[in-house]
Amino acid sequence: MKYYVLFGPPGAGKGTQAGAMVERYNLCHLSTGELLRSEIAAGTALGQQAKSLIEAGNLVPDEVVEGMIEAKFRSTKGVDGFLLDGFPRTIAQAQVLDKMLDASGEDVTACISIMIPDQLIHERIAHRATIEGRADDARPEIVENRIQTYHAKTEPLIDFYRKAGKYEEIDGMGSIDDVRTRIFNTMDKF
Ligand code: AMP
């Protein structure tokens, strides 16, 4: 099984590119953000716990997302691997992921990182807010908090995966098609 970590700041285009990636490589797309939003929509206890954190632009506790990921690893059949989108988001989550995979003799295949400059992050999220209607895209101060959380807690993962020899950076500027081609050229190596 292949385990790809899809990495990048908010608005880099992870969700946009994920569909084509899962189709071409027969992967299961696991977006912790999407899983959490459907828990909120379904009104589950987990969703209620996560709602205020997400809407303030803060991370939900590591154990919550780790539990969701592990359950999906167990229940998903018939794919050649997983595309982890929005997970891991902290070094602690990355270490837990390594342990989970190690238990079955597997490991992360590569971290596919889509990079855009900070200034473009705001533009992309403002644009998405008009299309998807996400509560955490609507208020500038919440978006700012997510960007700061990204820099403080998630960006250190770049070094984590670089040291493991698994970091593959892709230029996220340009058209959706151009970025997709760059991603495919990288993933074809694995
Ligand atoms: P996303 O759709 O990836 O932008 O995630 C939306 C929100 O869900 C984030 O701002 C966090 O509040 C929460 N979330 C998603 N994935 C994680 C994660 N791996 N760890 C903690 N919180 C997460």
CATH 4th-level superfamily: P-loop containing nucleotide triphosphate hydrolases
Q: Helices and strands, in N-to-C order?
A: EHEHHHEHEHHHHEH
State the helix count.
Answer: 10
Structural class: alpha/beta
How many strands? 5
Please compute the radius of gyration using only Cα atoms.
16 Å
Small molecules (ligands, ions, cofactors) in the structure: adenosine monophosphate
**What would you say the CATH architecture is?**
3-Layer(aba) Sandwich
**Strand portion, in percent?**
5-15%
Distance between the termini: 11 Å
Mean pLDDT: 96
CATH topology: Rossmann fold
Query: What oligomeric state best describes the polypeptide chains here?
Result: single chain
Percentage of residues in helical conformation? 55-70%
Number of domains: 1
Strand order of the largest sheet: 2-3-1-4-5
- Give the class-level CATH name: Alpha Beta
| Global outline | globular
Low-confidence stretches: none
Largest sheet: 5 strands, parallel
Structure commentary:
- With 190 residues, this protein is α/β, with parallel strands linked by helices.
- It has a single domain (2-187), classed as Rossmann fold.
- The chain is built from ten helices and five strands, in the order βαβαααβαβααααβα.
- It has helices at residues 14-25, 32-42, 45-55, 62-75, 91-102, 118-132, 135-138, 140-154, 156-163, 176-187; strands at residues 2-7, 27-31, 81-85, 110-115, 167-171.
- It has a five-stranded parallel β-sheet with strand order 2-3-1-4-5, with helices on both faces.
- α2 packs across α3 and α4 (62-75) runs parallel beside α5 (91-102).
- It is globular and about 40 Å long.
- Bound molecules: adenosine monophosphate.
- The site of adenosine monophosphate has 17 residues, from α2 and α3.
